[in-house]
């Protein structure tokens, strides 16, 4: 297992003078595929996400980004929950049920984002586990919250992802992970489309019970 991880991290391709390891390339492409699959509300979203987390854990651990590495473990656990939750809310006509969050749910999301980011950033600082503890913590917490909200079928998870991308792009560039930064830019465009798509679907599913 260790030898395989070392090979995936030590080998890859060069694009525009930038070395991209196989682990980073395949991991980020899987992560990108997850966005497409999530837009279509298919259960395949989750096993593909599991593959991405395993590969990207190795990438971020080697780049000494503790928060980004640990978040892959959290994503793995949430992916199991999301897989289970989506399988329970599947509809033969409208697919996985999605909806807009209530005012209370939105406040809870914001509160968790603020409190957890602060706490985790202070922890990373105390442990000297990241050279950029605050953005690292924001991405970690934002990702966990986004995946949890996605598992719950809340439209707002796309907006949390957009906030994660806004911090993720400059952090990836500063870390020398240029390919990952480019993927984050693509993520942002897909997230905007995904938010629009889920909003439309949420309205359709809300009206569905009233149709004759």
Q: Which helices and strands, and how do they pair?
A:
Layout: H1 2-10, E1 12-15, E2 18-21, H2 22-39, H3 45-62, H4 66-88, E3 90-91, E4 95-96, H5 103-127, H6 133-151, H7 157-174, H8 178-207
Antiparallel strand pairs: 1-2, 3-4
Helix pairs in contact: 2-3, 2-8, 3-4, 4-6, 5-6, 6-7, 7-8
Description:
This protein has about 210 residues and is mainly alpha-helical. Helices cover about 75% and strands about 5% of the residues. It is built from 8 helices and 4 strands. The strands form 2 sheets. It has a two-stranded antiparallel sheet. Strands 3-4 form a two-stranded antiparallel ribbon. Helix 4 packs parallel to helix 6 (about 135-150), helix 6 (about 135-150) packs antiparallel against helix 7 (about 155-175) and helix 7 runs antiparallel to helix 8 (about 180-205).
């Amino acid at each position: 297992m260790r030898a395989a991880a070392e090979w995936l991290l030590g080998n890859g391709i060069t694009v525009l003078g930038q070395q991209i390891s196989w682990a980073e390339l395949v991991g980020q492409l899987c992560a990108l595929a997850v966005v497409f699959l999530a837009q279509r509300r298919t259960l395949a979203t989750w096993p593909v996400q599991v593959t991405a987390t395993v590969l990207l854990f190795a990438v971020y651990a080697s780049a000494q980004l503790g928060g980004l590495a640990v978040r892959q473990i959290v994503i793995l656990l949430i992916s199991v929950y999301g897989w289970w939750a989506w399988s329970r809310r599947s509809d033969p006509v409208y697919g996985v049920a999605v909806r807009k969050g209530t005012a209370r749910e939105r406040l809870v999301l914001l509160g968790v984002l603020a409190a957890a980011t602060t706490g985790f950033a202070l922890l990373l600082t105390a442990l000297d586990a990241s050279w950029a503890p605050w953005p690292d913590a924001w991405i970690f917490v934002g990702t966990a919250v986004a995946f949890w909200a996605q598992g719950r079928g809340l439209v707002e998870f796309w907006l949390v992802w957009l906030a994660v991308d806004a911090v993720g792009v400059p952090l990836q560039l500063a870390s020398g992970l240029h390919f990952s930064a480019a993927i984050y830019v693509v993520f942002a465009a897909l997230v905007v489309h995904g938010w629009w798509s889920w909003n439309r679907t949420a309205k359709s599913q809300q009206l569905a019970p009233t149709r004759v």
